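Private note to self, pasted from the team thread so I don't lose it. Backbone tokens:
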């Protein structure tokens, strides 16, 4: 089933009119995606070809079924902190099963039309965990960047840092040199404004330097060929396989101990938590990317369709050895700047990665591991959003800064899933507090001669401003408890009340009962019809309770006279 975005491009004929520019954009993004896909797979604890499979399979499926014309999907840095622990605990098979389950959950999100809800996660929460992810990714690359021999691989962040510190005496200058050259090339290449990606130039120069050091000095430089192997026709071969992605059931891949995973209900239950985390993060990342892309391209994405497309892509990728995918902001921005404006660019990007893998797989194996580490350090820096993070800490409201710092610290020191959960809870509590501050009840001076109730000295009028919900309702209505005992009636002007929940309705009922026992009448004025219906369904109609409704102040005055037998007292002229 083709996506709404693809149907739009066919309907407005942009798919055919801009064919050439989308071909060029796809080629450009494919060149950028090639090293990133390999590096992010390595950072996630799997062989580099699994990142390439993701860019190929998920890239095509999501482009054809998603809700954005310009999004480019594939492996991203955001997933690393989730995927690496899954691989360490359950192996590649467990990761692929988790990815397939995550895809099904994302499809469910789209069918349930949760796209708009997922997009409202507060900005400090998003920046908090992205900054934390950047720190974790950069830390994980230090060992390869410096050529360290790390004997222990603990799960906790602080233990990883200690393990790296203990391994510092094993630093190899040649690995460090290649890492620095790669890093410097990527950073300085941006200033040339060349269309050739800096990542590619950095890896190319590093590979040549590594080959030269190996040949002329005899110093061994660790490469992809040294670190990764694959099975083909019963043989174990080094590097990356130059063959098409093969259809393999996810549970047939090896688990943490080498054997295939046993498919059972217990397996699904074990991996469901990880799958849900992947689904939520992937949905958030994709929709944030789509929003950024809308601003850059001028098009509008379809959030629910995008979720369905992401889900289909993740399910498909899992059956071809691909790790979880999501829309990538950097690759999407490159696509837009290169002229991409239809899903065809994303398809060409995936085909470019496929051809590069088939043609250059032998040469890709000679890329130094320290060079791949340098690429990921740049990715981590870009993801950390350092400029925005500093701005939040020093210039944002204190509560927002606290939310950011808590999310950042929990992402780095504990777990990203916990960080997001705690961040959302904190942000929700702060939102509730701010809404409570906006809601209030103020006494209206109606004793002026021009006021509707100026002739009723025993009546008080309160203006209720803001939504009445849990927390705010008690604050707004507790003022009524201080009304003088001699007051015969209280009129609540609820014209500015846009919402009330069951807590507010219960508080209103309690307030009305309290006033009734004191022989004080309660009239609700200017209540919106939908809220009147809600109150009546709850049992607060005039026949069932001691609350009276009035459409306006004039009608409230008539009720005081005709129903409550309150006589007006003329106001003397001054």
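Design output:
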């Amino acid at each position: 089933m083709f996506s709404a975005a693809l149907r739009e491009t066919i309907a407005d004929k942009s798919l055919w009119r801009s064919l050439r520019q989308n071909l060029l954009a796809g080629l450009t993004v494919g060149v950028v995606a090639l090293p990133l896909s390999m590096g992010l797979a390595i950072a996630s604890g799997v062989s580099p070809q699994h990142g390439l499979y993701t860019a190929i399979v998920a890239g095509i499926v999501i482009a054809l079924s998603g809700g954005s014309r310009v999004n480019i999907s594939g492996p991203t840095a955001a997933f690393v902190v989730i995927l690496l622990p899954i691989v360490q605990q359950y192996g590649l098979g467990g990761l692929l099963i988790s990815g397939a389950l995550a895809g099904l959950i994302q499809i469910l999100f789209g069918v349930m039309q949760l796209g708009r809800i997922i997009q409202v996660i507060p900005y400090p929460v998003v920046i908090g965990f992205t900054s934390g992810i950047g720190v974790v990714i950069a830390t994980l690359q230090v060992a390869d960047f410096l050529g360290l021999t790390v004997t222990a691989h603990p799960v906790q962040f602080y233990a990883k840092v200690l393990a790296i510190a203990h391994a510092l005496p094993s630093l190899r200058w040649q690995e460090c040199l290649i890492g620095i050259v790669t890093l410097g090339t990527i950073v300085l290449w941006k200033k040339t404004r060349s269309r050739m990606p800096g990542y590619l130039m950095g890896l190319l120069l590093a590979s040549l330097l590594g080959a030269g050091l190996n040949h002329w000095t005899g110093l061994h430089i660790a490469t992809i060929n040294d670190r990764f192997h694959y099975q083909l026709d019963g043989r174990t071969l080094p590097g990356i396989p130059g063959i098409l992605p093969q259809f393999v059931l996810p549970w047939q891949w090896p688990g943490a101990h080498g054997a295939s995973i046993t498919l059972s209900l217990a397996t699904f239950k074990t991996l469901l938590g990880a799958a849900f985390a992947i689904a939520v993060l992937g949905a958030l990342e994709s929709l944030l990317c789509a929003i950024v892309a809308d601003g850059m391209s001028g098009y509008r994405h379809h959030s629910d369709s995008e979720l369905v497309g992401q889900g289909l892509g993740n399910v498909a990728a899992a059956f071809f050895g691909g790790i979880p995918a999501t829309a990538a902001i950097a690759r999407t921005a490159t696509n837009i700047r290169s002229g991409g404006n239809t899903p065809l660019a994303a398809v060409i990007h995936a085909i470019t990665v496929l051809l590069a893998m088939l043609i250059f797989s032998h040469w890709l194996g000679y890329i130094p591991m320290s060079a791949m580490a340098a690429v990921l350090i740049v990715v981590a820096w870009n993801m950390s959003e350092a400029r925005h993070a500093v701005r939040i800490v020093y210039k944002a409201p204190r509560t927002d800064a606290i939310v950011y710092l808590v999310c950042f610290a929990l992402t780095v020191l504990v777990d990203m899933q916990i960080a997001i959960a705690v961040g959302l809870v904190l942000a929700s509590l702060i939102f509730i507090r701010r809404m409570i501050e906006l809601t209030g009840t103020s006494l209206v001076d109606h004793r002026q001669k021009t006021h509707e109730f100026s002739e009723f000295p025993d009546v008080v009028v309160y203006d209720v401003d803001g939504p009445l919900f849990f927390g705010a309702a008690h604050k707004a209505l507790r003022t009524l408890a201080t009304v003088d005992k001699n007051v015969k009636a209280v009129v609540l002007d609820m014209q500015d009340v846009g919402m009330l929940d069951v807590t507010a309705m219960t508080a209103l009922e309690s307030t009305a009962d309290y006033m009734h026992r004191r022989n004080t009448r309660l009239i609700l004025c200017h209540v919106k019809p939908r809220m009147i219906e809600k109150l009546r369904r709850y049992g607060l109609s005039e026949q069932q309770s001691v609350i009276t409704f009035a459409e306006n102040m004039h009608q409230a005055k008539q009720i005081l006279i005709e129903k409550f037998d309150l006589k007006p007292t003329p106001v003397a002229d001054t």
